[in-house]
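We modelled the chain as a single entity of 308 amino acids. Its sequence is:
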Amino acid sequence: MNTMVFGKSNDDAGWRPWAGWGGAFALVAALGFSLKAIFVKLAYPYGVDAITLLALRMGFSLPVFLWVGLAGRRSGGSLAGRDWGRLAVLGCLGYYGASILDFLGLQYISAGLERLILFTYPTLTILIGVFFQGRAFAWRREGVAIVLCYLGIGFAFVHDLDFGDARSVLVGGALVFGSSVSYALYLAGSGPMIARLGAMRYTALAMLLSSAITLVHFLATHPVAAFVQPLPVYGWGLAMALFATVVPVFAQSAAIKRLGAGQAGLYGMVGPLLTIAFGWWLLGEGVSLAQGMGAALVVAGIVIVSRR
């Protein structure tokens, strides 16, 4: 009997985990998302707060998603009233809820630890699919990969506890894990919507709703004058919008369409390694033996899950 994982057969001769361009799209998404924490950390010294920085990110991204959403309004299936409700929920969970918790967490912990904790979302996405969506679980590949990745995260957590304030690490870690849960729920609900609407159209609509919610939150809690920030903040916000939002968001949706949410997320586990490297290079964050061992375990998980 064939083992079915997220609707694909491991014994299907026409299928590979990379599924054409799916793996490449997933890695591009991981690169872009790994830069987000670096941009946030580079902007914080100028005094900007989390919601203002998130509003700048979404505001700069808004024209692109509006254009894509309008251009694709005739493609894919038609939108019913319940579809708009689902899009609103997914928008709240994905690029609003997950982002605000992540930005808040980065005030307390290093970029490297943030990325490792955040990358529990692929394993959470798989578990949501298994327990709530009736999907099969490939123990020999996905199970071992999950164990290795969580061990890697544990090693990195020990590194930050040894070199930082324990309370800050725990508070920041809890916030970022909440971000991971929120993003996993977003990914788990994305697959059916992408199948109906198409990757580009769905992503644009979800991001438009996320942007609207973010800007409403900002206007409800800040005066409009709070948008006046030092010039470097605008630069980092624009870089975040382009390289850590627009490009990786569309790449991630394309990867989900080709690989499924769980597989696409697991390939993206290369992101923590990139963030640790960028954190060392651009932020001067230290890299210890424990963190290196954690990164190695995450790589091992990626290698296992990438096997046929």
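As a brief sanity check on the tokenised model: The two ends are 16 Å apart (CA to CA). Confidence is low (pLDDT under 50) at residues 1-18.
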